[in-house]
Amino acid sequence: MSQQKPVEYVSATPEVKAVFDDIKATRGVPDVNNFWKYIAQHPPTLARTWGSLKDIMADGALDPLVKELIYIAVSVTNNCGYCVASHTAGARRAGMTDEMFGELLAVVGMANETNRLAVGYRVPVDPAFE
User: What is the DSSP track for 48-80?
Assistant: First the structure.
């Protein structure tokens, strides 16, 4: 259980409210989720993290669904249950199906297994891959 308390909008500083307002407007949601409320305890971290996430997750060479799928994969590997839940919801909003989710988790599991085998066996990189 966290020892910290979330920063709610009503008690937030103007600096935090500005970031919360941008999150709500950008995402079209009535409130920010717990991640933002907890990191708002340190307003510079809140602003920096939101700015970076907003830029990185925007449509670009990779579409938003692909970015959400990557985020899920990394979050599963890093064992961040919060991020898995949050970005699974985001991926579903972006069009992820149950079949896609199943395949994603199969790839994540296989990559983790083969990565560990390659590390354990200290397999050198093939010259063709350089």
Answer: HHHHHHHHHHSSSSS-HHHHHHHHHHHHHHTT-
Please tell me the distance from the alpha carbon of residue 112 to that of residue 88, in angstroms, as a whole number. Answer: 19
Q: How far is 60 from 2, CA to CA, in rounded Å?
A: 36
Residue 130 lies in a domain: no
Both 35 and 45 in one domain: the answer is: yes
Token pair in block for residue 108: 């994540």
Residue at 46 is within a domain: yes
Give me the chain's average pLDDT, please: 96
Please report the pLDDT score of residue 39 as a whole number: 98
Its domain, for residue 54, covers 1-58
Place of tokens 């990185």: 56
Give the pTM: 0.90
| pLDDT at 120 exceeding the cut of 90 | yes
Residue 43 lies in a domain: yes
Residues 71 and 38 in one domain: no
26 shares its domain with 12: yes
Residue whose structure tokens are 């970076």:
52
Is the pLDDT at 64 greater than 80? The verdict is: yes
